[in-house]
Amino acid sequence: MTYNNNTQDKKPPTKKKESAIICGFGHIGQSVFDLLSKFDFKIYVISNSHVEQEYYTQRNLDVTFIHGDARNDDILKKAHIHEAIAIFALTDNDLVNISIAIDAKKLNSHIYISVRMFDSELGESLKKTLGIHQVYSATQLAAPHFIPNTGNLKRIGDLNTLHTDYELLLQNNFELNETSNQSQIKISIEQGSLLFKEKFKLKKNKSLFHLIHFFHHSTTFSFKMLTLFFIMILSLSTLIISTHMKLSPLDALYFTVTTITTVGYGDHNFSNASVFMKLYGIVLMFFGTALLASIFSLITDFILAEKLKTFFGNHSIPQKNHHILIGAGNIGARIAEILIKTQEPTVIIESEKTGKFSEDFRRQLAVVEGNPKNKETLIQANILQAKSVICVTDNDVDNLSINQKAKDLNKDIITEMSIFDKEMAKKLKINLKEESIISSPLIAANYFLSSFFFQGVIFCSSFSNSLIVICDRKDFFQKLPIPEKYKTQITDFNLKEKELCLIEIIFSKEK
């Protein structure tokens, strides 16, 4: 074999980097940037607010910051949109993001477009119309992560497949291999073992046990006493009539009921009975009718009270094992929807500062008005007997303050806290190990990035040194190559009849 010496000395041509554009550099924009910068992309950031560029340039990242409005075609052209393979519209305004998507499609018909929208239903309807590839609501993605897990495993989210809900739990050991049964599956990953545990839904059950449970917990003491007394009178009268008037138990019960309700058909009467039975019949008619009327009045009162409670709200504070939700923003509303749907006992604390929930939520949940940073307000919400406190106000400092006051009052309470600042969230996770520190922007960023690389994404989560992505196997394909410096492994598995695949990207240590 002969070699061309002239070509041996030549360096291979340098491959030009693919470029991506991020529009909006708030918390979500920064989180998407941090993940995207781990891959070999030239990144353009368009923002109309001030950015500390020096912090990013010191990290030797291939990034160009452009100050301006991304809805301006000239600004998009400065970001070389004609050459870009992707644009992420991540501002905090739905209309602005839609406008950016339309302009991007006009200037580059082949570009991948990913849009952040608060109104996820509107976003889904606009996907096909405007040619948008992916739409995510950050609050909708983050909300399930705030529902606490009482077990020993770390909960990292929920997964829904074919109307079956699974809770994803992380177990930090390396002993478990892939095993499966009807309710759960465990898969070994770099971080330990990922457990998919089926969440059994409560089904409506009309058994005697549930009827007794409802009677015990949902009725007043007076109603319970009158009902029990009525059953005793009915049983005793049936026994006396059956014994003294020589009737079968069923005929005696029938005669007792017709006597108490004053509905006589002439087939049974006291005319030929003994003096004792005639006197007993008179007492039964008067006393039984009064007792029955009292029961019916209490039933009417109970039904009316429930109707008014449903219409106006004013639910009582749960006695124990309830959630306390603080923060009436977009995330708070999403969390409230989940808690109502799962019928979890919940108290919402609202104030002018933390926001007011809509009337729809106030009608369905117990409400405490006051400053959640005051111990008196937390005590009014029965924090001493609560299962968890969920702090999702728009202020990180307030969330941290409320979290600490909750722990002071109830050291056993589970705390779920939203921290938007990703750097602060990392530090708090190290120093506040028992608390669950959740960064909503990072959760959303995982989905924006994963859907950029893979088709069919239904769940993803990032760790300190890896990214986990779960895809529907029938829709899955890899749209872009993962850099060779990162280890990537794919595991196929089934959750009942649903075929899925788990992709784990392990980043280099230096990254």
Describe this structure in words.
The chain is of the alpha/beta class. 40% of the residues lie in helices and 24% in strands. The chain has four domains: 16-136, Rossmann fold (3-Layer(aba) Sandwich); 142-169 and 442-506, no CATH class; 208-312, Helix Hairpins (Orthogonal Bundle), CATH 1.10.287.70; 323-437, NAD(P)-binding Rossmann-like Domain (Rossmann fold). The chain has helices at 5-8, 27-36, 53-57, 73-78, 94-107, 120-130, 138-142, 208-218, 221-244, 249-260, 275-312, 330-341, 359-364, 375-380, 396-409, 422-431, 440-453; strands at residues 18-23, 41-47, 63-67, 86-89, 112-116, 134-136, 154-161, 164-171, 179-180, 184-189, 192-198, 323-326, 346-350, 366-369, 388-391, 414-418, 436-438, 454-455, 457-462, 466-472, 477-478, 487-495, 498-506. The strands form five sheets. Strands 3-2-1-4-5-6 form a six-stranded parallel sheet, with helices on both faces. Strands 14-13-12-15-16-17 form a six-stranded parallel sheet, sandwiched between helices. The two termini are 42 Å apart.
Short description:
By secondary structure, the chain is of the alpha/beta class. 40% of the residues lie in helices and 24% in strands.
The average pLDDT is 82
Note the total helix count.
Answer: 17
User: In CATH, what is the homologous superfamily of the largest domain?
Assistant: NAD(P)-binding Rossmann-like Domain
Ranges where pLDDT stays below 50 over 5 or more residues in a row are 1-12, 174-180, 202-206
Helical content band: 25-40%
Count of individual beta strands: 23
Termini separation: 42 Å
Say what the CATH topology of the largest domain is.
Rossmann fold
Strand residue percentage: 15-25%
Strand order of the largest sheet: 3-2-1-4-5-6
Count of all domains: 4
The largest β sheet comes out as: 6 strands, parallel
Structural class: alpha/beta
CATH architecture of the largest domain: 3-Layer(aba) Sandwich
CATH class of the largest domain, named: Alpha Beta
Q: What is the molecular shape?
A: elongated
Rounded to the nearest angstrom, the radius of gyration is 32 Å
